[in-house]
Amino acid sequence: MNKLIYLDNGATSFPKPKEVYDFMHEFYQKHGVNPGRSGFDAAIETEEVVHETRKLLTDFFNGTDPNRLTFSYNASDTLNMIIQGMTSKGDHVITTNLEHNSVLRPLYHKMHDGEIEVTYIPFDNKGYIDPDDIKKAFKSNTSLVIINHGSNIIGTVQPIAQVGKYCNEAGIPFAVDASQTAGIIDIDIEAMNIDVVVFTGHKCLMGPTGIGGSYIKEGVNIKGTRFGGTGVKSAYPFHLEEFPYRMECGTLNIVGVAGLNAGVKWILKEGINNIHEREILLWDRLRKGIQNIEGVITYCANDIENQNAVLSCNIDGWEAGDVGTILDVDYNIASRTGLQCAPKVHVQLGTDKIHGTVRLSLGAFTTEEHVDAAIDAISEIAEIKR
């Protein structure tokens, strides 16, 4: 069998850098114990890696206090805690049609239960949110603006700095879902006026699955929604209010933290802008290649500015799912088809009526040969229907 051509990095980056695999293996063999719960050497050394990772990511987002860098299972897990912890009955929340279900579903549950009101801001014909539309949606009871930084369907990177400026001026907390951008696009929470940035480890940060988290600025009002063991102040009957414990309970995924540690260090070594520039040039090669194929429709912006290496398309006469199957079986190309957990994007595009799109998402280890193979495969599939 030919080697897999992996174009599903929007779901999970693969492969990871060798440094990530090696460090996780070495770390878990030597330090597979609870961090900081005990005074023996292995526990202390494990806690040192956990704290170092908090500091790496705090610096990565230009935060100030590593204790406010909190870990969870993934971005969806953290977004649930953020939405539950930053909204109360009677509140108004502003989000967008670009969101993943990790934002849409927690909001919908609270809206369905009659607790909150939600305004959804549409994107323009190029795939971008107008910050002025968000500003116009502000109400006296708006308690949270939460948007994704980069779309997992059309790859557009949103103008979060301007949104953050408007939120800051109005005194409204601003949370950013950086699942698709943390590790590939610079995020400066101070310059962009972000109050909460949420990340996942298994995408652009080059870590494993099962690890994610957030950085929460000092002064942000968020209540804890999980309670349990912290390893400190065990006689105290309530869960601790101080960070990072407010957002964490139980034993951390320490091998996941280790992988994240190695992933961030790899990104810093390679240079985040260098990685992104290489990916986006390959994306542009892919975009131009498949846009020249008769019968192929693309859903993306037509330039490389404010864009991630994610491209959705359809082939006239084909179901997206069937195209994905052919790419897999006949060409050994991994893609993602359907609604990709972001239904409102597809409703606005009209692709919900045709069962979504074929998504091709490039990564740090995608090559020109991979891109050209995908172009050739899509050309051959389109030719069948002509």
What does this structure look like?
The chain is of the alpha/beta class and 386 residues long. It has 2 domains: 5-16 and 271-384, Aspartate Aminotransferase, domain 1, CATH 3.90.1150; 18-270, Aspartate Aminotransferase, domain 2 (3-Layer(aba) Sandwich), CATH 3.40.640.10. 38% of the residues lie in helices and 15% in strands. It contains 11 helices and 13 strands. It has helices spanning 18-31, 41-60, 75-86, 101-112, 131-136, 160-170, 254-270, 272-291, 320-331, 343-349, 368-384, and strands at residues 5-6, 69-72, 91-96, 116-121, 142-148, 174-177, 196-200, 212-216, 296-299, 310-315, 333-334, 336-338, 357-361. The protein has a 7-stranded mixed sheet, with helices on both faces. A 4-stranded antiparallel sheet has the order 9-10-13-12, with helices on one face. β3 (91-96), α4 (101-112) and β4 (116-121) form a beta-alpha-beta unit. α8 (272-291) packs parallel to α11. The longest helix has 20 residues, at 41-60. The protein is globular, with a radius of gyration of 21 Å. The model has no long low-confidence stretch (mean pLDDT 95).
Can you write the helix and strand succession as a string? EHHEHEHEHEHEEEHHEEHEEHEH
Report mean pLDDT, rounded to a whole number.
Answer: 95
Outline the low-pLDDT stretches.
none
Architecture (CATH level 2) name of the largest domain: 3-Layer(aba) Sandwich
Backbone shape: globular
Tally of contiguous helical segments: 11
Task: State the share of residues found in helices, binned by percent.
Answer: 25-40%
**Which structural class do you get from the secondary structure elements?**
alpha/beta
CATH topology of the largest domain: Aspartate Aminotransferase, domain 2
**Rg (C-alpha, Å):** 21 Å
CATH superfamily placement of the largest domain: Type I PLP-dependent aspartate aminotransferase-like (Major domain)
Q: For the report, how would you describe the main beta sheet?
A: 7 strands, mixed
How many domains is the backbone divided into? 2
Terminal CA distance reads 29 Å
Strand order of the largest sheet: 2-8-7-6-5-3-4
Strand content: 15-25%
Report the top-level CATH class of the largest domain. Answer: Alpha Beta
Q: How many strands appear in the DSSP assignment? A: 13
